[in-house]
Amino acid sequence: MKIIKKLAPALLMVLAGCRPQTPLIHSIYPQTGSMGETVTIKGASFGKERDESYITIAGAQPTGMSYLEWQDNEIMFRTPEFGEAGLVYVYVKGKKSNGVLFTNRATLPRPVRDDVRAAGPRVTAVTPQSGTAGALVSIYGTGFGNSRGNGGVFFAWNALSPASAPLEARVQEFAEVAETEFGYELWTDREIRVRIPDGASGGNMEIRTARGGSSPPLGFDLAARTGTKTFRDKRSYTVNYSVNVKTGEAQPPNTLYLWIPHPAASAAQRNAELLSASTEPFIDSYRGISLYKLDNLTANSDEQINLSWKVEVYRIETTIWSQSVRQEQNSPLNTAYTQSSPQLPADDPRIVNQAAALAGRERNSYTKAQRVYEWMTGGNFVWESQSGGDIFSALETKHIDSCLAALLYCSLLRSAGVPCQPVAGVLVSRNQQTMNHYWAEFWLDGFGWVPVDPAMGAKAIPAPFSVYEEQPNFYFGNIDNQRIAFSRGFSNLSPMDPHGRTAVQSRSYSLQNIREEAIGGIESYSSLWGDITITGIYAQ
Description:
By secondary structure, this protein is mostly beta strands. Helices cover about 15% and strands about 40% of the residues. The strands form 8 sheets. Strands 2, 4, 7, 8 and 9 form a 5-stranded mixed beta sheet that branches. Strands 11-18-17-13-14 form a 5-stranded mixed beta sheet, with no helix packed on it. Strands 19, 21, 24, 33 and 34 form a 5-stranded antiparallel beta sheet that branches. Helix 5 (about 390-395) links the parallel strand 25 and strand 26 (about 400). Helix 4 runs antiparallel to helix 6 (about 400-415). The longest helix has 17 residues, at about 1-20. It is globular, with a radius of gyration of 27 Å.
């Protein structure tokens, strides 16, 4: 017994030495640098050799060739491309160090010599200092204003740029907190509470107020706990479309309203810019739609509205660690995007039964979404360019098109408790032709929106519009950049007049309940909504 007692402390020390220690960063020098410069991290428990260990800056990971030296208390490496600022972490055998802020010298703001900045918003604290998509963040400071107005909170957003793109030509972009994701929970002069938007990345965060001021950039780290999302292969499209109205019998006073959609904003579809419009809108950009007003149309007259837009579209590639998926059932986003509606009848017994049969006892949202996708693309349906009927006739006859597929997919997922919304737009062929198309996206807390295209996955799209041979594998979780979305979810619009005569265009490039509304002395008219035409494509 005495011998055992003497050996026990030594044995404990040996066992303790075998356990992997959490790496610890003491300092980083320099604290500000540019891509390609040498940076030294000093600390402890990094390991004598790098092996599978690595570091990240604002979520960016250096290549293996970037590491110059790796010792237990010191790491030297060349800085990879990253955003404006972000936290540096060391990862050793699955353990993560504390974070230390590192700033990109090329993006440091210049000193302001007047009092404009002093009067703008100031951030004093952010809690927590890191998070994932959908997580709540509280921002404390001064000068935010008592209401948001047209202000907002912007997180860093980064796309994978080609190696040939010069660093100085890359402009820092941002992902704005989104109202459609219930992103704004509180806005006062001294506190803002928001949810991290889809597509945000580690780097600078800033506040922009209704008075036009912006806060100094502040580093914020995005933790990839559920998976990774990459935006790449940017394409810029110039698109034209029009509405032609021919009036038959009419007498004043009368009005014709036209709700015309814009290219929809998302993390992968950005920087939409109106290049030209033949008519000024009556209401500009309400829920991604502009309202045009034609007053006192005369009999046998012709009116036309022509629009030209430029928009950037990125390909999305995702990697999701399904075992890490956790869904916040009572969040406002989950509640809103699992609701039943006339377009997405998630509570109908036929949908409920089918969803239950596919999901079984599965509780993981990602796995449920995958099972529904595999069932829809696995040869259970006859795919057509345009089917008649609704999603219930598609369930019964097994004849389906991309529109019914998107609606059925979203209905089944909502019934299974997975937030989901349909997306409408156009596919763009190699020779710049377009065709109306529909797909979907579902939400994972801690990750964001996940794209899904059942029709593409089933190889049901004409060859000129097809992109990838391995379509079933690609189009669950990934999406190509050869499409332009005009609506995400349904736009439920209210008539301008309770006595107005409304009309809707079915199977169009936008999902909205009203397209036209005639008021007053318009006895007869016809409208032609032109196809989307592509007049320019620029691929980066």
